[in-house]
């Protein structure tokens, strides 16, 4: 009877071992945060992410800029044709207000209005052309001075290691939990196979 109980426990023990192994492996991705040297063996132990933090942040920055979204695409999105009309109208309103504020107060209101309308008409006629020139200039300037890759890399490296660990866990909490559960399921089926093999040789 004891032999059958042992066989029945094998899948349960296998599931526990599989779950525990994957849980331990996940912990080793982050821990230990700081290098730990093992005396006499000359081995240094550190979590994968803390150890390769600089390489990982560099790879994320390069992937984001080269394969996901570029600086040019960000500007194109912000200065799209959909937003062009609103931006030109905003510029027109700002210029009209500035003209009204800066012109001497002794000028007749009609003259002030005429000047504002004249400038507004110029913006209406040449606004699209000026907008496209401004967007092209902004894109060229951003390509030279705004490096999305470096910005992302610096931002990731600015995180404290514990903050970085917490961020990654929050972003991938569900996936990490699935890895733990999968380890338990695989361990359970390995335990069943072991039980069947053991039963066959009883």
What topology emerges from the helices and strands here?
Blueprint: H1 2-30, E1 36-38, E2 43-45, H2 48-51, H3 53-68, H4 71-78, H5 81-102, H6 109-145, H7 148-158, H8 161-171, H9 173-200
Antiparallel strand pairs: 1-2
Helix pairs in contact: 1-9, 3-7, 4-6, 5-6
Q: What this model shows, in words?
A:
It is built from nine helices and two strands, in the order αββαααααααα. With about 200 residues, it is mainly alpha-helical. The chain has a two-stranded antiparallel sheet. Helix 4 (about 70-80) runs antiparallel to helix 6. It is elongated. The two termini are about 10 Å apart.
Can you give keywords for this protein?
single chain; 202 residues; mainly alpha; two-stranded antiparallel sheet; 9 helices; 2 strands; 3% strand; elongated
What structural category arises from helix and sheet content?
A: mainly alpha
Shape: elongated
Low-confidence stretches: none
Order of neighbouring strands in the sheet with most strands = 1-2
Kindly estimate the percentage of residues that lie in beta strands according to DSSP: under 5%
Number of helices: 9
Cα separation of the termini: 12 Å
Average pLDDT confidence is: 81
**What does the radius of gyration come to?**
32 Å
The main sheet comes to: 2 strands, antiparallel
Helical residue percent band: over 70%
Number of strands: 2
What is the element string, with H for helices and E for strands? HEEHHHHHHHH
Structure, briefly:
By secondary structure, the chain is an all-alpha fold. It has helices at residues 2-30, 48-51, 53-68, 71-78, 81-102, 109-145, 148-158, 161-171, 173-200, and strands at residues 36-38, 43-45.
